[in-house]
Amino acid sequence: MNRPALGRLALLLCLVLPAAATAADYRVLQDQSTLGFTAAFQGAPFQGSFAQWHAAIRYDAAHVRSSKFDVTVDTTSATTGDADRDSALPGADFFNATKYPQAHYVSTDIIQAGDHLIAHGNLTLRGETHPLSLTVTFTPQPGGTTLMDVSGTLKRLDYGVGGGEYADTSVIDNDVTVNAHLVLAPK
């Protein structure tokens, strides 16, 4: 390789390598993290969570658009603290977990919006895929971990969640807030 070509290659590497070094893949500290939802039944709010899920997180503060979130949730692991509701959630009227045991969210674009991010992506639940935007904040912590807080609102009926008598939005509100508090460590 001639000297000018070698010089251009060195310059290109100098430009590319710092950008690559700022991106980080994170592992989620599952025992310190939560993934859940808030809904309302007959006007009374209730919270639920998922015990089994996996999140692949890539975050680059310098190049936010190269960040990526990919989350798979085991819908059979939903709990709300109410035995009747918990036994109904995996059933055909709600998650239909026998046919659709997983929900899947993958980001398609992430943008900076002031002090937080907006993750645009698609959620697949019960075989239905719809766009879902999430508000995301990253907060570095002493000791090298990072907190990732997420929230967004979906329309449950878009996904067929709460069919039959439960399709009535005066019984169960159509808006469901998804939320997560993740403790991340670099891989």
Number of helical runs? Answer: 2
Tally the beta strands: 11
- Structural category is mainly beta
Distance between the termini: 36 Å
The largest beta-sheet arranges its strands as 1-4-5-7-8-9-10-11
- The value of Rg in angstroms is 20 Å
Could you spell the SSE succession in H and E letters? HEEEEEEHEEEEE
Largest sheet: 8 strands, antiparallel, barrel
Q: Spans of 5+ residues with little confidence (pLDDT < 50)? A: 3-21
What proportion of the residues form beta strands (DSSP E)?
A: over 45%
Please tell me the overall pLDDT. Answer: 90
Portion in helices: 10-25%
Shape: globular
Account of the protein in words:
This protein is mainly β and 187 residues long. Helices cover 14% and strands 50% of the residues. A hairpin with an 8-residue loop joins strand 4 and strand 5. The longest helix has 20 residues, at 3-22. The protein starts with a helix and ends with a strand.
Which key terms come to mind for this protein?
disordered N terminus; mainly beta; 8-stranded antiparallel barrel; 187 residues
List the topology elements.
Blueprint: H1 3-22, E1 24-28, E2 34-41, E3 44-50, E4 53-59, E5 68-74, E6 78-79, H2 83-88, E7 102-113, E8 116-125, E9 128-140, E10 146-155, E11 175-186
Antiparallel strand pairs: 1-4, 1-11, 2-3, 2-11, 3-6, 4-5, 5-7, 7-8, 8-9, 9-10, 10-11
Summarize the structure.
The chain has 187 residues and is mainly beta.
